[in-house]
Amino acid sequence: MSKTNPSNLDLNLLVILDTIFTEQSLTLAGNKLFMSQSAVSHALAKLRDYFDDPLFIRRGNIMEPTPLCKTIHRNITPSLKTITQSLHDRGEFDPSSSKRTFCLGLSDYLCKLLLPGILKRIESQAPGISIRVVQMTYEKRIEMLQSGKLDVFLGCPRGHNAGVLKEKLFDDREVCVVRNDHPIKGNVMNEEEMADSEFAALSLSESGLGFLEDYLYRKGVQRKIKIVLQQETVIPSLVENSDLVGSVAQRLAEMYAVKGRLRIVRMPLENTGFEVAQHWHSLNDNDPAQKWIRSIIKEVARSLPPLKLR
Fold this sequence. Notes:
alpha/beta, two-stranded antiparallel ribbon, 11 strands
């Protein structure tokens, strides 16, 4: 195959490359594309010949992309996604007839808070549309938005990133939850109680640092964070049967406190508030489908009750 003329490359091969990259397996890629493994292997051989690069190297059961493959994939993914979506929507977007799948970046806390309302509205307005939810670190969200793998990310804004737009959805506040008979008795723990307690805390950063750990560091308090998780909804269950103090969002804390097994205590801080926003890439700012799903998310978020003062 000639490597000098892009017109000699069968563009269907790029779809196969994208699928191998995503599935990390020739067998799984074949299943997704309704192709045999040998057919996928044959297509990969053509791609390797065209790009004069192995593209994928087998590491155990995983097909690991080479640096060139990563670059190619990063550049072709947005275009492939746009083409696929245009074919599905026949050049127009009609929610009532669309078969599109939207990929949303949601933490488990936001899934619990917003996903039921989002699905309810989708079912009534666009029954053919499906949702794929992924959870990732803050560091990965920008990469996924830029590559087109992610349509919308919901979470706390963290600095400015070129090409990424945001819209505030609602406010929340960091609080703590403890079991009802916990040694901390008041509604607000003092600094001594905070320094003496062991915490279960959330971090969606690859560094493992979150709100609570950052606060303790700035206060010069020796860190007593017993466990750091990326799953915030697990924290209340850990707190119920231990002396751990859980650090969670207030809206989530109230869901569990109403069951009567936990109570909410505030930290000795003037302000633990934060905002939740939806983020998307500027390339998708005027896309009718993306505008529609963002409007659904905004509608659900704005229907939340006001944050209670504590």
